[in-house]
Amino acid sequence: MDSSAPEHSRLVATGAKSFPEALLEMTDAQVAAVRERDLGGRVEKASFPYAKTLRDSDFSFQPSIPRGVVEDLATLGFLDRHESVVIVGSLGVGKTHIAVAPGVEAIHAHKLTRFTDCQRLVSDLAHAAVKGQLERRLRFYAHLSLLIVDEVGYLDVDKQGADLLFQLVSRRYERRSTIVTTDVGMGSWARVFGDPVVASAIADGLCHRCHIIRMTRRLFSTKDLAPQDGAPPVGATNSGVPR
């Protein structure tokens, strides 16, 4: 029952609202609450590390990103065209945030979306292969409207993992959109995947129709965390205990 029902009953009883007006307001409130819970559930199911959109962001810190690309990501135009996005940059430049934000927009648009990192994805596929469920798991990932794979290149991938990723990229090729973040250039993927042929095939599958975003400026540096004028470090109280 709507928690506002007693208040609406009082308003009807005093003549401040008609019964149809009160009923409509309570119905609208219940529908909004259901939609909010549904959205929260879908955001949680997508496994985002946080849920910020591109509209929440200030891109003045990262002028290396063309404004047109940001707008295309925010409006999900790349999804309609089945294009992918590869975000390249060193640690701390905000790659994950740029990858997550379109995913949150996609959830709002009722698009099937999943966030994972490269190692978790490889482990999931390898585990499915051991259990004889690889085909089923590949179909799951291939069906997603948007798959976001974070931290490609942060750790090396063995031959089995590279082969599994190639199978998945092949299934999504020109059918679904994938966002990848990497802290190494694609020219170094041969080292990451241990096989230049497979690495090239994965890169080709992602980059045939894609945006490549190179991020060059850090969100902050360690000097930004240094105390100034006797203030405690960021994340600490006056006693020095982290908050």
Topology, element by element:
Blueprint: H1 5-13, H2 19-45, H3 67-75, H4 77-80, E1 84-88, H5 95-108, E2 113-117, H6 118-130, H7 134-143, E3 146-152, H8 159-172, E4 177-182, H9 189-193, H10 196-207, E5 210-214
Parallel strand pairs: 1-4, 1-5, 2-3, 3-4
How would you describe this structure to a colleague?
The chain is 48% helix and 12% strand. The chain folds into two domains: 5-45; 54-214, P-loop containing nucleotide triphosphate hydrolases (Rossmann fold), CATH 3.40.50. It is an alpha/beta fold and 243 residues long. Helix 7 (134-143) crosses helix 8 (159-172). The protein contains ten helices and five strands. Strand 3, helix 8 (159-172) and strand 4 form a beta-alpha-beta unit. A five-stranded parallel β-sheet has the order 2-3-4-1-5. The two termini are 38 Å apart. It has helices at residues 5-13, 19-45, 67-75, 77-80, 95-108, 118-130, 134-143, 159-172, 189-193, 196-207, and strands spanning 84-88, 113-117, 146-152, 177-182, 210-214. Residues 220-243 have low confidence and may be disordered.
